[in-house]
């Protein structure tokens, strides 16, 4: 299977995305900003449409639009503290509307653009890989130096402010990083499903782990399994990789929830029997 060059590129790109997207996902889920990735993907779509229309590198214009969207999300979130979801609604609809208008101006929508919508295993080229590697390195440096401040900011923003952490700049930097990851994930997963690659591994990991660090590690492992198995299924079944990856991750989530419910049911039954045995023993002793 790996004798095909395009497939090697797809697996390399998928591996890099799976290393960073779930880490970002754990933070945005814990910060209750799960829709931020969805919003940035819509804004990034407008950038991709503009790039296709003007003949520029679509991933670059998509990244620029995602960065602009990340700044707007952070600014609007602080302007409407009591209605923080308002910024999500405004930018999501604005990004999609801009993308639709730009697409209508392009009479011949190219195949590369549709691959950004739904993902494609043949859409990744060597330039995309270099850009993804750069974003991966940037994410690694960010979390290496700012792991602790981000941890405090995620769980208690007020405590972070009192502790002297520059919460505003740190939050903005994290939003910009999220925008970059969303933009570089589009060729594999597609703009319509890119947020799932962040949120689903995080949701599964948080159900399995009680510790933060373990949750991050589990999310990366689950993300890698979902992406690589999804790409393999996509190749053999000739189906879109984005949808396949997301369905694999949803299948894992349903399995985990089901297994946990069965385990809880068994533990409850065993606990009830033990309690009944203790009560019966005490009754016999009293007699």
* Estimated share of beta-strand residues: under 5%
Provide the number of structural domains.
Answer: 1
- Based on CA inertia axes, which overall geometry fits? globular
N-to-C SSE series? HHHHHHHHHHH
The radius of gyration computed from the alpha-carbon positions, rounded to a whole number of angstroms, is 22 Å
Percentage of residues in helical conformation: over 70%
Mean pLDDT, rounded to whole units? 82
The CATH class assignment is: Mainly Alpha
Give me the count of strands.
0
Task: Describe the protein's topology.
Layout: H1 5-30, H2 34-54, H3 58-79, H4 85-105, H5 111-118, H6 126-155, H7 157-162, H8 167-189, H9 194-208, H10 212-237, H11 241-286
Could you give a quick summary of the protein structure above?
It comes from Tumebacillus algifaecis. The protein is 85% helix and 0% strand. By secondary structure, it is mostly helical.
Write a concise keyword list for the protein shown above.
mainly alpha; 0% strand; membrane; ABC_TroCD
Tell me about this structure.
This protein is mainly α and 287 residues long. It has one domain: ABC transporter involved in vitamin B12 uptake, BtuC, CATH 1.10.3470. It has eleven helices and no strands. Helix 1 runs parallel beside helix 6. The N and C termini lie far apart (74 Å). It is found in: Cell membrane; Membrane. It holds the Pfam family ABC-3. One of its GO terms (cellular component) is ATP-binding cassette (ABC) transporter complex. Keywords: Membrane, Transmembrane, Transmembrane helix, Transport.
């Amino acid at each position: 299977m790996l004798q095909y060059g395009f497939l090697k590129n797809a697996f390399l790109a998928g591996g890099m995305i799976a290393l960073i997207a779930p880490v970002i996902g754990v933070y945005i889920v814990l910060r209750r900003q799960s829709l931020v990735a969805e919003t940035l993907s819509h804004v990034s779509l407008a950038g991709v449409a503009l790039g296709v229309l003007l003949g520029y590198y679509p991933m670059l214009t998509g990244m620029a639009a995602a960065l602009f969207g990340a700044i707007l999300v952070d600014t609007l979130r602080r302007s409407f503290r009591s209605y923080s979801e308002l910024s999500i609604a405004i930018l999501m609809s604005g990004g999609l509307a801009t993308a639709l208008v730009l697409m209508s101006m392009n009479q011949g929508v190219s195949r590369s653009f549709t691959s950004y919508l739904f993902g494609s295993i043949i859409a990744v080229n060597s330039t995309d890989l270099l850009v993804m590697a750069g974003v991966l390195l940037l994410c690694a440096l960010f979390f290496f130096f700012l792991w602790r401040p981000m941890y405090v900011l995620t769980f208690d923003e007020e405590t972070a402010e009192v502790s002297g952490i520059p919460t505003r700049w740190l939050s903005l930097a994290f939003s910009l990083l999220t925008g970059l990851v969303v933009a570089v994930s589009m060729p594999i997963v597609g703009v319509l499903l890119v947020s799932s690659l962040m949120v689903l591994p995080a949701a599964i990991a948080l159900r399995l782990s009680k510790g933060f660090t373990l949750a991050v590690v589990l999310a990366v492992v689950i993300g890698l399994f979902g992406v690589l198995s999804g790409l393999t299924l996509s190749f053999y079944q000739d189906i879109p990789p984005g949808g396949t990856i997301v369905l694999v991750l949803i299948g894992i989530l349903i399995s985990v929830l089901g297994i946990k419910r069965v385990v809880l049911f068994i533990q409850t039954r065993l606990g009830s029997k033990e309690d009944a045995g203790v009560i019966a023993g005490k009754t016999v002793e009293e007699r």
